[in-house]
Fold this protein.
Amino acid sequence: MKFFFFGNYFYALCVIALSIETAFQLHIALAPIIYYLFIFNVTVVYYTKAYISEAINTKSNERSSWYVANRKTVFTTQTTFTVLIAVFGLLMLPNIMGGISKLSLVDIITILNFPTTALLYYGVGNKLNLRKTHWLKPFVIGFVWAGIVTFFPVLYNQIQTGNTIDINFICWLLFVKNLMFIGVLSIMFDIKDYATDYNQQLKTFVVSFGLRKTIFFIIFPLTLLGFASNLLFAQREHFSILKTIVISIPFLLLLLTAYSLHKRRSIFYYLVIIDGLMFVKAICGIAAVKYC
């Protein structure tokens, strides 16, 4: 269990699940399996690199201690997955080279925007570090996740087929819905890191406003805003009442989970229950299109 969650494999599965949800909700073809293998490995390597750096500085929590105790295993998996990223990237090239050559400058900027933001999240030296953007921090995380799981499946599909890239209004609505959902999850996750963020002078919402105000005056309104974009998406796609209810379930669970944070929770509660809402959202989104 620790290997699966601390090793960031669950995050990688959530990226794949949300990417598949995008394909279903936007009615585009699923990407080939090699694409999902590529983003799976990239996600594991990215998050593991971040936690390796944290583990060097502190042993004060269970996850950091796990990284210290399993340093050799983590190094082996990081090396293996980095090699696999290169292999999968090279194998994908023949299918997308034709489409890449037709990209405009705007298309290229769109594609590079999200991975660049992800790299800047942990900073370049001490001068540029998006993790220290305080209240913007959860929305930076939501922006990257939403871009990768919403725009990238569309971009890959259109590059592979050689069509002109067209990100329509429905795609933007799905992006906003994902951004708000994952942004709220990130705010909730900051509750776990309150002591660390306070000591590092990171002005997260919970450090600035306290637990109760963060839940009722930050998380609840933002969740309702995400729910509104969810209803607008359903309306524009002419979803039935049943489909609308199914894709709304994750937002209801988001409110209930936020309220549950009044009590002190273990790290696995955050990793399994809170982060697990991303997987639930993907399942509900896929089920709404395929079975309702």
